[in-house]
Amino acid sequence: MSLATESVTDSSVTRQLLPVAGPGETWRLLWGELRSHRAALVATLVVSVLAASAALVAPWMLGVLVDEVDRAGTGADVWTVVGVLVVSAVAAAVLTGWSAVLLARLGNTVLARLRERVLEKTLRLPTATAERVGSGDLLSRVGDDVSVVSEAVITTGPQVVSSLLTVVLTGAGLFALDWRLGVAGLLAVPGYALSLRWYLPKAAPFYAREREAMAERSHVLVGSLHGVETVRSYRWESTHEELIARRSAAAMDLTVGVFKFFTRFASRNNRAECIGLLAVLVVGFLLVDADAVTVGAVTAAALYFHRLFNPLGALVTVFDDIQSAGASLARLAGVASLPDPVEPADPPAPADTGLTLTGVAHRYDGGPEVLSDVSLSVAPGEHVALVGTSGAGKTTLAGVAAGVIEPVAGSVRLGGVELSTLGDAVVRGRITLLSQEVHVFTGSLADDLRLAAPDADDARLTAALATVSADGWVRALPDGLDTKVGEHAHPLTAAQSQQLALARVVLADPDVVILDEATAEAGSAGARRLEEAAAAATEGRTTIIVAHRLTQAQQADRVVVMEHGRIVEQGSHTALLAAGGRYRQLWDSWTGLTDAGATGGR
Amino acid sequence: MRDDSTTARRPVAALLTGMIWRRRGRLAVSWLLMSLHQACEAAVPVAIGVTIDVAVATGDWTALAWCAAGIIVLFTVLALAWRFGSQQGVIAQQRELHDLRVAVARRALDPRGTDSSLSTGETLTVATSDAEKSSLILRAVSMGIAAVAGIVVSAVTLLLIDVPLGLGVLLGVPLLLGALQLIAPRLSRRSGAAQAATATATGLATDFVTGLRTLRGIGATGRAAERYRRASDDALQVSLRAASVTGVYQAVTTVLGGLFLAAVAGVAGWFALSGRLTVGELITVVGLAQFIAEPMRTLGYCGQIAAVARGSAKRVAELLGTAPLTRDAGERSRQDTTPRLTLTGIGYRGLTEVDVTVAPGESVGVVCHDPADADALLAILSRRVPESDYLGTVTCDDVPAAEIRLAEYRRVVHVEPHDTTLFEGDISENLTAGMPASARAGIEAAVAAAAATDVVASHPDGMNRHISDRGRSLSGGQRQRLGLARALAADPPILVLHDPTTAVDAATEELAAQGLAAFRSAPDRSTLLVTSSPALLGKTDRVIVLESGRVTRTGSHTDLLDSDPAYRKAVLR
Q1: B232: nearest CA in chain A?
Q2: Using the beta-carbon criterion (under 8 Å), do A248 and B80 form an inter-chain contact?
Q3: ipTM score here?
Q4: Which has the minimum average pLDDT: A135-139, A419-423, A439-443, B226-230?
Q5: Are B367 and B567 in contact (CB under 8 A)?
Q6: Are residues A321 and A361 in the same domain?
């Protein structure tokens, strides 16, 4: 499926992941983004503080009301209290709504700029880095990490900000009533602190284990259901069912365990609430006894404190979300802070479209040598076919020739100029690589094609499709060029996807084409049509074809036979057949004409 | 459609009530404790009011001590009730969820197949998210019962304090929540749109990263980044519009809540001034007026969860209720002689009167001019089709396949699917799962025969190389060769392969063809190859050609090449 996996290791063994930013770097990046919206940032903070302050008026007024009742005030005093309550309700409403809008605007804007930057950096990663990192890490950054941070910005973030402001300002309100009532309220803080200190260190590994168990459960479920036909033909139904039950039970036990753990945490928070409330009431009792404050002030203080239960509970329970959002943000910041690849300022122009490889050798991450001293010169417009068994190094050689794999030794020149001198942008504009991985991009067919040529009009798209004989089926699609294709849309067959890839080559109009397509699944008739399409798409261009089928070799100007990372034979199809060497053996056995035992053995 | 929903309601109700009934003991404990917890929550503002009334306002030390003790007891009961009540509820829910998930998986993996129209992805959704959502019914019921308890306690307290005031609060709060419900759909519509737009942008990003090699191959990474920037900006605009609605909603919530509080405070204050209420009762009324909105909101939320649970339970019940696709009534065991597979007069989809015989030790190729014929033939051979759906008979050693137990038939006739699926685990586990330990010695030979030695050798872990993500980390050709090795290692008496080398290059295909022929050369091992690969066909004893669903030619590969131009065109590429 990949350029490199035929010979390179795939699993986590040698995976080098993308950088993760440290806390300092993450903050700097975030602050840099926020600073560019300074006015919005200040406005958001001011309005949010005012909103939280306006909400303090109500409990205070209720305290005043209690005092009025206590000293047997008049109906007019009640009316005053009601009037202030109404005004404060309206003010609090306007300010709360406004601050929510401002907060969402700021958060979403910063988020959008961040995700755009991350994707751009990811797409512009040096090829070698991207290949080494593998699609798993890249996908989790632009997919999962962005989703986690978005969720934090949209729901957790505003909740945290408003809870935090409420807690701080309500605390200030307690102090404003009487500093001793404020101190009493603060007695709850050690309780919460102890509770968090007990909870946080245990929580992260606990939740991580639960997530892992859930991932393992869904792995077996996905695997067994996708492979149900295989499961049935091997009669593995009960084995898989047991495995699913085991993984599901393991995940269930962890979920229950994590929840039990969480309930203990919540109990500790209840204890802190109880301590704080008792402290406020007892201190209030003493102060009223000493005539230092009114009963109304104690009422307001107790109501203030009761009002804190929800925001405090929210704050301590979103700690996990904040932690995981922080982790994802650090991963995004790691990508966003990557340096841009350096492009040579004024690269020399290649003299022609010929491609020359000299003394190329390559190995993957200290593994065995997969290419040894390969020299190959392809004249402008010449078609060369690479032939050999899996692991002979064809795909690696194709990658080196296309400039997506940097060989450990040797050089690659386009029209006499080293690829590294030309720079990635120029090389990618002049050399097109069609790898084994055929991807149809989500969106309309025209969108997909215009990735190769953004300015092409419909006529040019249709012409490119006609070149690769795909115009017929495209016209038959429900909406022609505007048909939505890709995931969850109109499915294309493997052969159609490959034709689409060839049409992109025609539109990209490169000097050099490197073709490394997998063999068509469409049977031999379909494969023949694809070969014709490939021939049409590469006509007049310098071309290297990794021949999965020997008819591709038959049609090439020159055939290069590889074994164990070296070139063992080269020449025209007819010359190699006449020479009776390795290629002859392959050809005879491949056509099935000769008994393999006689000629095909190794 | 309408009929569907009426007939489906009973199994849905049965499924949901069954879940509750099975866990009734645990749930009863949970409901009792959760109701107690809500009652305690309602009692907190009451306790504050009472303390201020009897202790703070009077300066009575004994009263203060009693109140403090009461508050400690209240919080202890509150905390313990929630802790153990919610634990029991979660345990019950998780156990039901586990049972449901395993039941769905069992149904989906049934050897007889399922007569369901769901795709694999949809079945997966049923087994994961629908099962999970169905189990939420337990939570909805628990939360609802507790909320009712909270409301009842608050209502009784309010009415005990003052009947007209209590009634006012009890009517006012639902009116208020109802008013908020009027703008709620608009809010959820907008935020739904924002989520969808953001998901679209994220989908585009992952799509571009998935196709990164393709993008880079045509030098289109810059254009892709530009396209994503536009999508991300669109998503931002939708999010900003949703934020405005959120702001309005929060403003309306705040103003309605504030005005209601002002009204209750005004009336209660008036009553307190006139001596109808004590100061403590005033505080309690105001506190409860604020508190009672919470359980009422919870009730509405429970309704939403229950609706979601019902929707998901319908899909779960449908899947669990589907009939098996085929029968497994056969009791007869096959006589354990050398295997002979015979298809006589098969008529199914495009196939018409197809006869195929594979004699013991024979290797037979089948070339289908139309790939659909190959699919039809394989569906019959793997007994994925009910006997009533096709004409003709399949016999194994002269015993009709329908009379042989499914497991026994599949032990003798192994059909390796064309799309190779590998499972999580290392290579050796994948190749040997379900095999007797004694047979595992042949693995290396099977790997070599399938020309897959390099797949194993290229990795430092060799046979212990871990396969993850359904083998996606391997190339198509590597996966295909491991699938072939697995089929060879299983060593069935009759092996049916469907285009086993399409993703393999010509030179490697030749190695695999040789290995396959040698591996299956024993006199009690027969092989049926449905393929158009000349490398494979060249090593068969006999080739059967199917054209327009009928057998048109039979002969050796070389004879057919010489005598049949259509055959030559079909296989020589």
Answers
A1: A112
A2: no
A3: 0.87
A4: A135-139
A5: yes
A6: no
Domain-embedded: residue A470: yes
Domain range for A448 is: 355-591
Given an 8 Å threshold on Cβ–Cβ distance, is B273 in contact with A68? yes
CA distance B129 to chain A (A): 11
Residue A343: inside a domain? no
Boundary (domain end) residue, out of A307, A336, A365 = A336
Could you tell me where the DSSP H helices lie in A471-581? 471-476, 494-508, 523-538, 550-555, 573-579
The chain-wide mean pLDDT, for chain A, equals 86
Hey, are the CB atoms on A504 and B218 less than 8 Å from each other?
A: yes
Please tell me the total count of domains within chain A.
2
Residue with tokens 């569906």: B379
Tell me the H-state helices in A337-484: 394-402, 419-422, 424-430, 445-450, 458-467, 471-476
For residue B394, the SS3 value is: strand
Listed range (A92-101, A564-573, B47-56, B117-126) with the worst mean pLDDT: B117-126
User: Chain B contacts of A140, Cβ < 8 Å?
Assistant: none
Residue (of B247, B573, B491, B307) closest to A524 by Cα position: B573
Torsion over CA of A81, A85, A87 and A90, rounded to 10 degrees? -170
Contact B473, A136 (CB under 8 A): no
Does B2 lie at the interface with A, CB-CB under 8 angstroms?
no
Contact A235 B410 (CB under 8 A): yes
Query: B461: Cβ–Cβ under 8 A, 6 or more apart, which residues?
Result: A11, A13, B426
Domain end among A308, A336, A364 = A336
CATH number at residue A162: 1.20.1560.10
Name which of A106, A458, A440 is nearest B210 in CA terms.
Answer: A440
The reported pLDDT for the residue numbered A12 is: 36
Nearest-CA distance B557 → chain A (Å) = 8
Instruction: Please report the pLDDT score of residue A45 as a whole number.
Output: 93
pLDDT at B228 over 60: yes
User: Do A299 and A420 have their domain in common?
Assistant: no
Dihedrals phi, psi of A126, to nearest 5 degrees = -55, 140
Same-domain status, A403 and A526: yes
Domain shared by A238 and A116, yes or no: yes
List CB contacts (< 8 A) between B410 and chain A: 232-235
Residue B401's SS3 state is helix
- What's the whole-number average pLDDT of chain B? 87
Query: B502 at the A interface (CB within 8 A)?
Result: yes
Looking at the fold, whether A361 and A323 belong to one and the same domain comes out as: no
**One-letter amino acid for residue B368 of the chain:** C
A246 and A362 housed in the same domain: no
Clarify whether residues A320 and A460 are in a common domain: no
How much is the average pLDDT of B345-357? 92
CATH (domain of A408): 3.40.50.300
**H-type helices in B415-556, by residue range?**
427-432, 443-449, 453-457, 476-490, 506-519, 534-537
Instruction: Tell me the shortest Cα–Cα distance from B262 to chain A, in angstroms.
Output: 5
Q: Which residues of A touch B101 (CB under 8 A)?
A: 221, 244, 248
Question: Cβ B573–A303 below 8 Å, yes or no?
Answer: no
Say whether both A79 and A218 belong to one domain: yes
From A75's Cα to the closest Cα of chain B, the distance in A is: 7
pTM of the predicted model as reported, rounded to 2 decimal places:
0.81
pLDDT higher at B344 or A130: B344
| Distance (Å) from the alpha carbon of A514 to chain B's nearest alpha carbon | 9
Pairwise CA distance, residues A520 & A335, whole Å: 37
Contact B209 A123 (CB under 8 A): yes
In a domain, A601, yes or no: no
For B53-64, the pLDDT digits (tens) are 999 989 999 999
Q: Residue B495 and residue B520: Cα distance in Å, rounded?
A: 9
| CA angle B47–B51–B55, rounded 5-degree value | 165
